[in-house]
């Protein structure tokens, strides 16, 4: 059962504590965050494609985000924030668990990367940001609308918001909770299936906070291909939005 959120934020302290306990293993590809390591290349490919299309970038440019500001909200120990920094962005990483931020700062230092890591959530945003990412986070917050409103408020006029989250289907319940949590591939208690959002539900809230969803792509898994982008959204999906015209 979720506890009351920290006043003035959408942070659920039980959720923050759960993910904070994973901090020491966050960068271990065989540890408790192993599934995120397998997801990351697919998510990064999607993000890069969205950026290239939105700003008509050179797909061969290794630093396409140079001169742009990015925020990764719910950054954990920096699995996405570090690649965004390598793409040239001035990156802010936010996470409600102090343990995760400590691990993120230590790892970035070892990589020679300058990332502004902060403990907190939407209340710690200092926009406008050209890019805001929040992957596998919205299903863990205490108030979805307030959370998305905070992201929308921090987005630049020509900016992009990119989210990913599990769909609320029988497949996601079986794959993520029965199978993955049941066999220890994901720590038990990571997911609450009742808090998963369908693409239609998430799209409706985004429109309600003044954003225009412009793409929704499925993130699927198969024994031969592993995680991959797909037209099928029954397990998980990525969604891109911009400010409404």
From TrEMBL:
Cited Pfam families: Methyltransf_23 (PF13489)
Annotated catalysed reactions: a 3-(all-trans-polyprenyl)benzene-1,2-diol + S-adenosyl-L-methionine = a 2-methoxy-6-(all-trans-polyprenyl)phenol + S-adenosyl-L-homocysteine + H(+); a 3-demethylubiquinol + S-adenosyl-L-methionine = a ubiquinol + S-adenosyl-L-homocysteine + H(+)
Protein's recorded name: Ubiquinone biosynthesis O-methyltransferase
Enzyme class per UniProt: transferase
GO molecular function terms attached to this record: 2-polyprenyl-6-hydroxyphenol methylase activity; 3-demethylubiquinol 3-O-methyltransferase activity; polyprenyldihydroxybenzoate methyltransferase activity
Family the UniProt entry places it in: Belongs to the methyltransferase superfamily. UbiG/COQ3 family.
Sequence positions that bind S-adenosyl-L-methionine: 43, 74, 95, 135
